[in-house]
Write a structure and sequence with these properties.
Layout: E1 7-11, H1 18-30, E2 34-39, E3 47-50, E4 57-60, E5 62-63, H2 69-72, E6 77-80, H3 85-89, H4 100-109, E7 115-119, E8 137-138, H5 145-150, E9 154-155, E10 160-163, E11 166-169, H6 175-186, H7 192-197
Parallel strand pairs: 1-2, 1-6, 2-5, 6-7, 7-11, 8-9
Antiparallel strand pairs: 3-4, 10-11
Helix pairs in contact: 1-6
């Protein structure tokens, strides 16, 4: 299995696109990777989210807010999925403060050794931190063309675009292409858990 030892984080909230999330849940472990679904826990031990199309329940027990730098550094990739997940995650109680999920994504972007996979409307989560995509090549859902351009990103009309540690995909229906691209890149790298433990 090509990704044995790799850990991949997927951010979650309600109104997720069921085919995409269920695909990740199966596909990455097929290659030997650990996949961890994370969210803002709001002080609870677990959160149950519902999908957009079929209201399929999905339970999450991991918080991205609790990860220290060492723990975050063990992840080979972070995925911001499609659907309304990013819009829900970018809520902030304080209009003067970054949303916690955008702060988490900024931390991931501060680590160029970690892949960032952003698909479809997932780019919304980067809107409060436009510097992470400014000047970078990316693809988004057609509804987000203005958002990407306002953030200073360079739109590329392809289903998947690779720009260094940023891998973007057009829509949730392209999740298999995003996953395959991340898998192919990570298969050429040693797991980060081994590097952190060394």
């Amino acid at each position: 299995m090509r990704l044995t030892g790799h850990k991949i984080a997927v951010l979650m909230e309600s109104d997720y696109y069921e085919p995409e999330i269920l695909y990740y849940q199966q596909r990455f472990p097929e290659e030997g990777a650990e996949i961890h679904f994370m969210t803002r826990m709001w002080g609870a031990d677990k959160q149950t989210f519902t999908g957009h199309e079929h209201q399929f329940p999905f339970e999450v027990t991991r918080s991205f807010e609790d990860l220290d730098d060492r723990e975050l550094g063990e992840y080979s990739a972070v995925i911001v999925p499609s659907g309304m997940v990013a819009d829900r995650l970018r809520f902030t109680e304080d209009p003067k403060a970054l949303p916690p999920a955008s702060r988490f994504l900024k931390r991931a972007f501060d680590d160029p050794g970690m892949l960032k996979g952003i698909i479809c409307h997932g780019m919304w989560l980067a809107a409060p931190i436009p510097e992470v995509v400014r000047g970078r090549r990316a693809v988004v859902h057609n509804n987000l063309l203005g958002d990407l351009r306002n953030m200073g990103g360079i739109y590329v009309d392809q289903d998947v675009v690779i720009d260094g540690d940023l891998v973007t995909a057009r829509t949730g229906n392209h999740c298999h292409l995003l996953a395959r691209t991340l898998i192919d890149i990570l298969a050429q790298r040693a797991p980060r858990t081994a590097r952190v433990a060394a």
